# Entry
Amino acid sequence: MRKLFSSLTDKELVDSIEESAQRERSVSIEILDQLAEMDRRDIHLDLGFRSLHSYCVSRLRYSESAAGRRICTARTMVKCPEIRGMIADGRLNLSTVCVLSTVLTPSNRFALLKGASGKSRREVEAIVACLKPRKRVRERITPVAFEKPSEDRMIGNEPARSPSLGVSGGGDSSRPPGAEKSPNRPANRNSTGNRPEIYLRRGGKNPTTRPARKATASLRGTRFELRFSIDQDAMAMLERARKIAPGSSTLESVFGRMLREYLDRHDPAGRQERRERRKSGQGTGNVQKTGTGKRAGNARGNGFGRRKGRSRYIPAPVRDEIFVRDGFRCTFIAADGTRCDATRHLQIDHIRPFALGGKHVPENLRLLCGAHNRVEADRRGLPAPARV
# Structure
């Protein structure tokens, strides 16, 4: 039953709040201990989650940041048990422990904990900055704006629609996305509002000689801000790409062109679609090459080409078929029906192990994330696959 706090005196209310805060810290420590033990046993993998973080977000309903703080603090407590008492009495909290964890070592932990005791997060960040002056930029993708249809962009009696990812940002609505002034772009945006999209199409024409499209093409929907850091070699390659890129050399256009080039070469779904077109006689230029040459020889028969004996090499057509069939997602399913949601660092696993005679056929192959692939290897008593 809800307490009637309005009937308490000021002192009683303050005492009640402080008592509740102390209980909250005690419960938090208990949760941290439980998370640390789950992390040690890897129980989340058996429950169908690729990581402890995914379990905390999906099952315990923590926000991503709250889950990250608790997991980081739990792991740091295992390495430095002194933190437990400091969290219990409020000298440290989850945020300050996470900041300290980046520089905490057995040799400096006592001095650092003493210096951070009772400090705010900003004060602790200043202490850590002295020991770790070079800060790594955290990768982030943020929706920044969504352009709404205006009166002069109407088709018939209905407003033009733009593609949307279902997320709208809080950008400046008085200024359309992409309307930044640039020396490489004319001020009149009515004729070049879809410049990046036109340049990135293969065989596309110069937008200055192409009539402007209707509202459907000029509205870009949700736009995103990307934040990440690159090393010196990557920066040199990016600058060279901007120099040789035809037309617009903005980062957006160059980045989009590189993504398309990469997906054209490496996307399993795209390669599989081209193979299907060639089989049906719709391909051009490469039809005769599919039956000859070294690559074609490797793709025929058992997929081993001229190699002697059995090989672990899985032909590219078979790999692509597995990725497309499994939906680019880990296929591990827990006992309660929960399927792992991992879509990165996927590996092809043999249902009947290759070491026990398993073949490279689609019926014997499946996608697993690295964590669940290692779990399956442990269950079978096989060497753990390489981490990728």
